[in-house]
Amino acid sequence: MLRENRCRSGIVVKSAIVWSLALGLVWLSGISPESGLKAADPPQATPSPPVTERQVLDAKSRGIKYLKEKIQSQQDPGYRFVAVLAMLKADVSPETTEIKDTIDIILASCKGGKYVPGPRHLYEASVALMCLANADREKYKPQIEMIAVYILSQQNE
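^ thats the sequence. predicted structure below, dont judge the formating
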């Protein structure tokens, strides 16, 4: 099968010529499918030293500190919700100022027995629900149910 490639000058180049040359070079080199030629093994990575528990705890502390510093400047509730969820998953107390302030934002969205969504309604609703469930599932059960009802109402059948 011949493919034609046109250059800007209009000259037609037959790719069959290129293929013939490539196959000829392979034949001249003595490489054949039966020759058992295989690719070189990839270089082996040098093993990293094991991570210590101290290093893990230090990294966790740095991450929590970073989130606490950044959360106050976040006007977008979705970003705050994700940061709070991460802190709760890292065993930060729900009684910290950053988490309490964000939970207050979530609770303010639950008005009159109904969840009132933000600009990124489903994204924010789902993360807000997880924040409340991780902070105190029993205490925030009514709000969790309001948000769940909202999320379910938005699902396509």
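The two ends are 50 Å apart (CA to CA).
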